[in-house]
Design a protein that fits this description.
Elements: H1 12-40, H2 43-59, H3 61-74, H4 81-103, H5 106-115, H6 123-145, H7 151-169, H8 177-199, H9 208-232, H10 234-242, H11 245-258, H12 260-281, H13 287-297, H14 299-320, H15 325-354, H16 358-383, H17 385-411, H18 418-444, H19 449-471, H20 473-495
Length: 497
């Protein structure tokens, strides 16, 4: 049985390093999945799958809200994880019963078929996808609640890797949205089932006090998580209605690649929330480490932007074989640039949630959507994926501004390390130059685009990290600690200890 820890017992640096390892793995797989889905099928098939999968994630977001409650309160000193786990299970079963029951009503199903990318043959696969999505949400929050927030990234990495292996090994067999859904469902159920068995934490009935505590957080967390998912995938939802499946496929493929850095920031938000929550319950201040954690947590977004500035056309050609290159490139550049702001507000917002303010997170996202949805809807039919990227950029700038506005009264100040931010900006310039030089050299040597893209990414990452280690003491400390953790774990595994 895995031992339970309070959030205040978590070492934020160690937990973030372990999370980063899993996040790099899982985010690489996530970025590649968009390209693989489009490559093994078509942009239209991939776009239909993306629209359905992301739509389900939005509809089931209240479950994420209640599981976020499990993570937040369960990580506090003296609280029972089993009780909040039990509450989460009851809520999930009831909510799924209502949603899936409504989904089976013929008039509603007919509206979905006529107005979206949904098709009659997808009824059973969609039901299975909904169940597996809920199970994944609960599992990741449960492992975070018992004091292992980094494990969520490794769960995602494992199931994502299995999906890609299956799709690539059986290239040509899985050719429809239903096929993609079945692969996703099978890998999710297998991985999450193994994790839940390993944790061996049984749900119990919550007390009246625990129900009251859960409601105090969940009444804002549930709507916040709905807006969180809608804001993250807003362009896909809107383009799925006003544009074509191909536009959805182009946008989502570009977004998954350009979102690499922001996704890592989002993953790092889990240990930050857990740590802040635990410290707050112990009466300790969190701001002392927030500026470095938030600014440093956005670091990969700077690296990705530099890589995209030099290599966007090459990636577009790999993903779409010469078609839709311009649309993909423009979308990826806009998303990659704005994600620097997204990474910052994501981490800051989760720190506020850790202090018990999910209402702030809800309000900021609502403001962002008010400004961005009409623009995406108006231009979506004419501009396709690019309209989605423009709307995404406007939304994130608005949220960023409001998060800064709320940070002072909630956190005690804006969690920004100005010196580190300046160094990351210089790192972006270096990343662009290194990527450009690497692509040019390998192209002259006759390297294929795929090999060139990988070598350029590895080279740029090494140079970017090396530069930060040279100019930043914090980076050197983090890299040294990462070496101790991962090399130490590898040696222990090799020696059988």
């Amino acid at each position: 049985m895995v031992s339970h820890r309070d959030g205040s017992e978590i070492n934020l640096l160690d937990s973030s390093i372990r999370t980063t390892g899993g996040a790099l793995f899982s985010t690489t797989v996530y970025a590649l999945s968009g390209i693989v889905y489009a490559a093994v099928t078509t942009p239209s098939v991939a776009g239909t799958y993306f629209f359905i999968a992301i739509g389900i994630a939005l509809v089931l977001r209240p479950i994420k809200g209640i599981s976020q409650t499990l993570q937040k309160i369960g990580s506090e000193q003296g609280e029972s994880v089993s009780s909040y786990f039990g509450l989460t299970i009851v809520f999930t079963v009831g909510y799924l019963t209502i949603i899936l029951g409504g989904f089976m009503i013929p008039p509603l199903r007919r509206v979905l078929i006529e107005s979206t990318a949904f098709a009659p043959s997808l009824v059973i696969p969609v039901i299975l996808l909904a169940i597996s999505t809920a199970l994944l949400m609960i599992t990741q929050s449960l492992v975070a609640a018992i004091g292992y927030p980094s494990a969520g990234t490794w769960i995602t990495a494992t199931k994502g890797t299995l999906q890609l292996i299956i799709l690539l090994l059986f290239d040509g067999i899985f050719t429809t949205p239903a096929d993609l859904i079945i692969v996703v469902v099978g890998t999710r159920m297998f991985v999450t089932g193994v994790v839940i068995i390993a944790i061996r934490t049984a749900p119990t009935v919550p007390t009246h006090r625990e129900l009251a505590r859960a409601w105090g957080f969940a009444r804002w967390s549930i709507p916040d998580q709905v807006l969180d998912r809608f804001s993250y995938n807003m362009p896909v939802y809107v383009l799925g209605v006003v544009a074509t499946p191909a536009a959805v496929g182009i946008y989502e493929t570009a977004d998954r690649f350009a979102d690499f850095g922001a996704t890592i920031s989002w993953r790092l938000a889990s240990p930050l929330l857990t740590k802040v929550s635990g410290d707050a319950s112990a009466g300790e201040s969190a701001f002392a480490y927030l500026d470095g954690a938030v600014t440093g947590g956005t670091g990969v977004t700077f690296l990705v932007l530099g890589y995209l500035l030099a290599g966007h056309d090459m990636i577009a050609a790999i993903a779409f074989g010469g078609t839709a290159v311009g649309s993909f490139s423009t979308t990826a550049l806009i998303v990659g640039g704005i994600n620097i702001f997204r990474g910052f507000w994501t981490l800051s917002s989760h720190a506020m949630e850790g202090l018990g303010y999910p209402s702030v997170s809800f309000r900021t996202k609502a403001y962002g959507l008010i400004f961005s949805v009409p623009i995406t809807a108006f231009f979506g039919a004419q501009m396709g994926a690019v309209a989605g990227a423009i709307g995404y950029a406007i939304m994130n700038l608005v949220i960023f501004a409001y998060v800064i506005y709320y940070a002072r009264p909630v956190l005690g100040g804006v969690p920004l390390d100005a010196s580190l931010a300046a160094k990351l900006t210089v790192g972006t310039i270096i990343s662009t130059l290194v990527t450009t030089a690497t692509i040019e050299l390998l192209s002259r040597l006759g390297s294929t685009p795929g090999v060139t893209a990988v070598i350029a990414a590895v080279t740029t990452t090494i140079i970017f990290t090396g530069f930060l280690m040279t100019v930043s003491i914090g980076t050197r400390r983090a890299v040294q600690r990462a070496y101790d953790i991962y090399i130490g774990d590898a040696r222990s595994f090799a020696s059988g200890q």
